[in-house]
Amino acid sequence: MDLPNIDPLIGIGVAASTAITDAVYVFFNAAVSERRRVAAASWSSIWYLLSAFAVISYTSNWAYVAFAAVGAWIGGFLSITVLNRLAPVRKS
Asked: Which residue has the higher pLDDT, 37 or 51?
C-alpha cells in the first residue's frame, strides 16, 4: 500500500483549522448553556466557516484526518483551559 503524499503546510493548516474550530465549538456550547442567543449564533457561524477548510483539505486526502484529530484535541484542551481561567468552576 502506497502512502499518500502529505504537504506539511496543508497538514499544519488542517491541524490549526480544526484546533480553532474545536475551540469555537466549545465557546458555542458555553454560549448555548448560558442562553446567550447572539453569542451562540455568532459562534455557530464562525464554527461552520472554519470547518470548511479542514473538511475540504482532508476529504481529498485521507492522511489529513490525523492532522484534524490532533488539531481538534488541541482546540478542545486549550479552550477549556481558557474557560477555566475566565470563570473557575465553583465547588458546592
From this structure: 37
